[in-house]
Every structure is written in structure tokens, then in C-alpha cells.
Amino acid sequence: MSGPREHEPALRRKSALVIGVGGLGCPTLMALARSGIGRLVLADDDEVSLSNLHRQLLFDPEDVGKDKAAVASQKLRALDAGLEVELVHSRFLPDNALELARSVDLLVEGADNFATKFLTADAAFLTGRPVVHGAGVRWTSTVFAVGHQGRPCYRCLFEDVPTADVGLNCDEAGVMGPVLGLAGALMADLALSCLLGSCDRQGSIFAYDGKLDRLRRVAVTGRSDCPLCGIRPSIVDIDEARYLAPTCAITQGAPPPNSRREDPWR
Predict the structure, then answer these.
(1) Measured by CB atoms within 10 angstroms of the end CB, which terminus of the chain is less buried, N or C?
(2) Rounded to whole angstroms, how far apart are CA atoms 53 and 38?
(3) Sign (positive/negative) of CA torsion 111, 115, 117, 122?
């Protein structure tokens, strides 16, 4: 069986944008850095919080209050001195989404709000980039990869930003750190496969139940009426209004939102 460094020459020429340096982004970044990837772009404008240390594995108590992306950059370079790390001290937003997506070979999304998830899906499709989505809450996590062809996509699964406020995000509902660690490892594995030209597992959603210690894989069928990747797509550009639903709902396999916050991107 081949080891990760066998593919290092090819991976050194590859790049990935990781959206969110949180409970999913941290283990994903650690695995990607150790793989020999050439460039990582980190998009996050938050600070390290004490309450998140149990699931954000890149950070230690002495990092609390510091810029999350900057601390992550230092620790990732310590894992691989040849790694190039670029920092984006911003959320992934409508005004920078397409530019950031075009600057890399692949997107990895670990946000905990629906606005960012749908924006990432749209930007990846419109720029022809593969994307790996991740989500987690309480004892469950899900991972879904979309290949270069862009179908089936995230909107084939969840259609649109939900509109009924019935749930909490992971900060409010809680999440088990190991559940996110497993999801992050799988996200990195799928990302590396796509970067090396093998997206054979794209189009399936992987769901992990931490209480049962069970990982399921379910194939997703592309919707012919999907507004993004369907026969007659209606989404042909990035329009901020498309992601600003007044309230949001929990969808099976997706992260619970928190529409009570005024900023839909947090």
C-alpha cells in the first residue's frame, strides 16, 4: 500500500482553500499539511476560544484570544517546513468567494452556518473546483464531496437555505470533539483523493454516528431540476441576497443553523 509521501511531488503542486479553522478545519488542515500538499489558504477571522479547545486540535490554552488563522499557520508550518500557508483574515463571503475559489485547486468547507455552505457550493461549481463539505453536531457528523464535474452537488441534497428556525448550531447544541476529528480526517482523505485525480467517492454522503460507532455511505442522486447543476440551472453568479434567509431550519445531515444571530455568516 502506498504511503502519503509517495504522492508528494504531485501534491506539492496542489493547493486547497480551507473555509473555517474550527472543529472540522483543524483536523483537516493537520492531515493535509502532513500529506505534503504545497499550499493551503486559510479563511477565518475569528479568535481562539477556550470553550472550543476540546474540538479545535491545533490550539492550546496559551493560544486563547489570539488570531486563529495566524496561530494555525505557525503550527501547520511546524508540521511541514515546505508548506506555503496563505491567510485570509475574513469569512468566505459573496464579495471574495469567486476570487478565492479560482486561486486554488480544491475547496474544503467546515462552516457551521448555512449561508457559507451554500455559498461555497455555488462558488465551487461556478469556478469548476471540487469541494468537500463537512458538518457536525452532538454525536453525529457528515461529509460530502463534489468532484470536478460538479454533480451531484450540495443543492441536490439540501436545495436551498432553509427558512424555519427550529435548531441550534454546534456551539449551542454541543458537539463531541472525536466526532469532528473523524469527520476532519475523512474530509482530508477525500480532498487528497480529488487532488490526485481520483474522485470515485464523490457523490456519496458519509454519515458517522458516534454513539453507535457506525459510518454509513449513501449515494446521492443528482436532481435534474437542481438550480445549480441541473438541466436548466438558474444560479449563474453569486448574489448575496440568495444566502440571506431570515430564518433557518435543521436539515438531516446538515449543520444546525443559528438564525438568531444577525450575521448569517457566523
Answers:
(1) N
(2) 27
(3) negative
* Cis amide prior to 9 (ω within 30 degrees): no
The yes-or-no verdict on residue 186 having pLDDT over 90 is yes
Q: Is residue 249 part of a domain?
A: no
- If one counts the domains in the chain, the total is 1
Q: Return the half-sphere exposure (C-beta side, CA atoms, 13 A cut-off) of residue 24.
A: 27
Q: Which residues does 204 contact at the CB level (< 8 Å), separation at least 6?
A: 144, 145, 217, 218, 219, 220
Q: Do 184 and 24 touch, CB atoms closer than 8 A?
A: yes
- The half-sphere exposure of 61 on its side-chain side, counting CA atoms within 13 A, is 0
CA–CA separation, 204 and 216 (whole Å):
10
Domain of 29, CATH number, reads 3.40.50.720
Measure the CA–CA gap between 122 and 125, rounded to whole angstroms.
Answer: 5
Is pLDDT of 77 > 60?
yes
Amino acid of residue 80: D
Higher pLDDT, 76 or 259: 76
Give me the phi and psi of 62, to 5 degrees please: -70, -10
Output the pLDDT for position 198: 81
The verdict on residue 266 lying in a domain is no
Q: Which element (helix H / strand E) includes 19?
A: strand 15-19
